[in-house]
Amino acid sequence: MNQQPRVLVCGSINKDSFVLVDHFPEQGHTVHAEPGPKALGGKGANQAVAVATAKLPVKFVGTIGLDVRGQDVLAELATYNVDISSVRTTSTHPTGVAVIMSNEAGDNIIIVTAGANQVTDPVDFVDAIKTSNLVLGQGEITPAATEKLATLANMHGCRFVLNLAPVPESVSPGLIAAADPLIVDELEAYQVLQALDEAHDLSPEDIPAIMHRLLDYAKSVVITVGPKGCAYQLQNEPGWLQPSVEVTDPVDSTGAGDAFVGTLAAQLARGKSLAEAVLYGNAAGALAVRSIGAAKSFAPWDEVSALAEGQQMPSRVPAGGFRYRQA
Fold it and tell me: SS3 sequence, 268-305?
């Protein structure tokens, strides 16, 4: 292990195209949109930028196609001081693409074409994994690749943080057991339990019960609950709800989740407790909704630190009894 913490992010890298709409279309309907920017995207690449923004060395590993889009996103990723030296190229698939539709309230709908992300194989990056303290993965590479990443991280003594988004149809107990923490939103948390055949007697709104059930597998769990903040719990310890800072006039929530995850992972790599790490994750996520885009919307580290450590950040409260969609 290195004396200086080093994070490895294995995941997706895409070219994002944004469009702005007054409202989202209903099924079978058409809406007019205003064109937005094109930029770096993919949960893996975005979270690597969040780690770098937190002033920690980070290497991103993944796959791009032999096309202009791939070169563009790779060059942009490098501008954030992310190590891209191990990124692979493929001639069989184009670089991944995402189309992001945002409305006036800052909500979004995202459609992803995986492209080259489908052929990412963590075995190709074993040397990079060996030199890392913490490995961060998501759900935007194939399920088999995510399983390999977890196995390799554990094999080489790296802490494995898993943002399982999106949730695949099949989830192995071993994958969830490797995660420390498992990070999902409230819907994904329920989907993980469904995939494990453990959700039959639970309400999707009962976050504490879902979190407790997930801890039958994972070492620790973080469940994000949008503007309400996040719930978190370690095995054999009480659960907590960490409220987020209220955001006025949000512009676009696209990058908020990735800012949260990458920042939390960076703080864990520094040796912070999960309770401390979620404060910084909440701060980064709240600040990221102020502008359009993902990586470009991430706030400077001094702003994130000031918010996380300041009096504006609410105190945590016990998670017992919390219902996500309660009035």
Answer: HHCCCCHHHHHHHHHHHHHHHHHCCCCHHHCCCHHHHH
